[in-house]
Amino acid sequence: MTKVALIGAAAGLVGVAALALGYQAGRSDTAPSAVADMSVIPASTTDRAEIEGIVRNYLINNPEIMIEVQTALNAKQEAAQKEASTQVISENKDRIFHSPMDAVFGNPNGDVTIVEFFDYNCGYCKKALPDMDALLKSDPNLRFVMKEFPILGADSTRAHIVAKAFKALMPDKYLEFHRDLLGGEGRATEASAMAIAVKLGANEAQIREKMLSPEITKAFNENFELANSLSITGTPSYVVGNEVVPGALGADVLAEKISHIRNK
């Protein structure tokens, strides 16, 4: 937890406590204060600085309170984000799971779909490639959708444009292209992507012509829009069922989520 977060939590506690104590000081009855466990505060205390000083001393002596407050806030924010993502997924199922511009690996009619947002220059995406291969090998009913999400600079964008063009012209060899480019050493660029495309039998002139297609830009824009709606800011990020799963968590974690969906 950052120092800024803790300071924010402490400031919030001070403010709430000051309001509560101010309210308590103005009452004529003896109902217990919301922060009565902090210290004994005279009912006549109305000076804000004095109240805040008391609260400050309490927080210094009991710093774990700030941790508890920040933990509760994080949990509340995560729950709200999960609820928002679930709604976005529900409202955009076709765009997320069935966009014609996305590559589909595994069983096209599989009973469970995993969607991966990836960048060819993402080191974690490279590490996650064997996870995808392991899941596809072990699960014949799995459908794996790849959403190209080039967020790591101009090289990534150009490499992904070549990839889109190659997929449009040679869809049957796209999985091999994908493995070679994502699994290769060094940075993915337009040149390295084109070299793989030509090696797999593509005509470079046809690839370059296809790279100019407005459909490619449209596909990227849609993926960026979806990622923004789902609060996806990094790669790899997955959509499994009605849940966004960020990070390269490994084949075992994804397999557990697949099993959970099937057992619902």
List the defining traits of the structure above.
5-stranded mixed sheet; 11 helices; alpha+beta; elongated; 5 strands; disordered N terminus; 264 residues; single chain
Task: Tell me what the structure shows.
The chain is an alpha+beta fold and 264 residues long. Helix content is 59%, strand content 10%. α1 crosses α3. The protein is elongated and about 80 Å long.
Secondary structure layout:
Blueprint (H helix, E strand, L loop, with lengths): L2 H23 L22 H14 L2 H28 L1 H5 L5 E4 L5 E7 L4 H16 L3 E7 L5 H16 L4 H10 L6 H10 L4 H7 L3 H16 L7 E4 L2 E4 L4 H12 L2
Parallel strand pairs: 2-3
Antiparallel strand pairs: 1-3, 2-4, 4-5
Short summary:
Helix content is 59%, strand content 10%.
Give the ordered list of helices and strands. HHHHEEHEHHHHHEEH
Roughly how many Å is the radius of gyration? 27 Å
**Portion in strands:** 5-15%
**Helix content range:** 55-70%
